[in-house]
Every structure is written in C-alpha cells, then in structure tokens.
Specification:
This protein is α/β, with parallel strands linked by helices. The chain has a single domain, classed as 2,3-Dihydroxybiphenyl 1,2-Dioxygenase, domain 1 (Roll). Helix content is about 20%, strand content about 35%. It has two helices and eight strands; from the N terminus they run βαββββαβββ. The strands form two sheets. The chain has a four-stranded mixed sheet with strand order 1-4-3-2, covered by helices on one side. A four-stranded mixed sheet has the order 5-8-7-6, with helices on one face. Helix 1 runs antiparallel to helix 2. The chain is globular, with a radius of gyration of 14 Å. The two termini are about 25 Å apart.
Length: about 130
Amino acid sequence: MISHVFVGVRDFTIAFNFYSAVMKELGLVIKFQDAEKGWAGWMAADQPRPLFVIGLPYNGELATPGNGQMTALLANNRASVQRCFDVAMANGASSEGEPGLRPHYHPNYFGAYFRDPDGNKICVCCHQADQ
C-alpha cells in the first residue's frame, strides 16, 4: 500500500546521523544517500519497498513538521522499541511518550514516541506479544 514516506529535514548531516542510528536498531539498511542533494533512504534488507526517506524540501523552503502528522516504524519486538527510543534520545530526540503498552490501541501494542531533531513526530511500535 505504501511506496515511501518522505520526512523533511533542515540539516541533512544531523538528520542522517540521527536516522542512521535509529534505522540500524530496526535492522533497516541504507538504499541510497546523497549528501549533495540532501537526501537518503532506508529499506528492509529483503524488500525494495516501502522506503523511509529523509531530505531537504524540494521547494527550498524550511522543513516544518505538520500538526497531527506522524510516521510509525515497525519493530520486531518490544526490546527493539526500547533500544530505538534510547538511541533516539541519545541522538537529540525529545520524548513524546516513553516505551510501553498502549492497550487502548490493542492488547499487544507496545510503542514509543519521539520527535526527531527537526520536530517530526516518530513512533516505533511492535504489535506482537512480548517475545
């Protein structure tokens, strides 16, 4: 259903370092990176899509996060959610909700929420029972 998600950033180097750390914890691999163009994309090692892409806005304007917009990244287990949150915090994120069960979504929903250095809201979640 989804080809890719594009998240606008203000400083490509800061964003690339931040997301490289988070994506590593999720087991995602870099598909492309071009510092001159100011964009990079990650994918699952065994699938070409969907892609998670960061980059400078094409229109040359300042990237700004949208109110009510969020990108949720899927983790394989709850421990991975915790590690991603910890890595995000260590790399300049601000917390929007520490890792934990959110049974109001469903009994096994385990998620964490944070804002990247540009203010984009990101969720990392697992839908499986604790493994």
